[in-house]
UniProtKB/TrEMBL annotation:
MF terms in GO: acyltransferase activity
Upper lineage: Bacteria, Bacillati, Actinomycetota, Actinomycetes, Kitasatosporales
Top-level taxon of origin: Bacteria
Boundaries of every N-acetyltransferase domain copy: 18-185
Enzyme Commission designation: 2.3.-.-
Entries under InterPro entries matching the protein: Acyl_CoA_acyltransferase, GNAT_dom, Ribosomal_N-acetyltransferase
Name of the protein in question: GNAT family N-acetyltransferase
Enzyme class, first EC level, given as a word: transferase
Record keywords: Acyltransferase, Transferase
Biological source species: Streptomyces rubiginosohelvolus
One Pfam family linked to the record: Acetyltransf_3
Amino acid sequence: MDLRHWPLYGLRLRTPRLELRLPGPGLLDELASVAAHGVHDPDRMPFSVAWTDGKPDEVARAVFQHVLGTVAGWSVRDWTLSLAVLHEGEVVGRQDLMGRDFAVRRQVETGSWLGLAHQGQGLGTEMRAAALHLAFAGLGARYAVSAAMTDNLRSLGVSRRLGYVDDGLDTDVVRGAPVMLRRLRLDRARWEAHRSVDVSVEGLDACREQFGV
């Protein structure tokens, strides 16, 4: 692939078990299929946006369109890096890193999901650690924030292992009902203190300007 006009396709994050990269059409189709096979118990909704509601082909199409939309809608002032996560060459989930006015605020937000078959193996911690390394070590972030429903113990557990601290509560509406969210915040010092995953980054220099740095 010629990367002259969109060098983000050449960005690679690697951990001991994972590779994260912006998916082209073929990899994106695999990612959509993982989502179609389920990412959570259908009886509960762990996401603030209920994007997994619908038939499998509808969920797959929503993932495909979302990732393409992040590329089409990218700007230096408001960007979402939506990375496919690969384990042993197989797509297992998605890790997002988001920045709004990042050049000024130096703050990022994360979001992610794993296919049901790949949960419970510590991959969620490893993939978010990769995104945080890109943010802090690669882009010079000062803060990372996240949020999860108060009963989403897996997501909250990942945040705690990586050093996040509580940052208050918020209320959202999901499936027409109110839900309570726990906000979390990670500063650079706590990220440094809790680093436990080796991460390497390839291809960042070619796309720094697109992040506003």
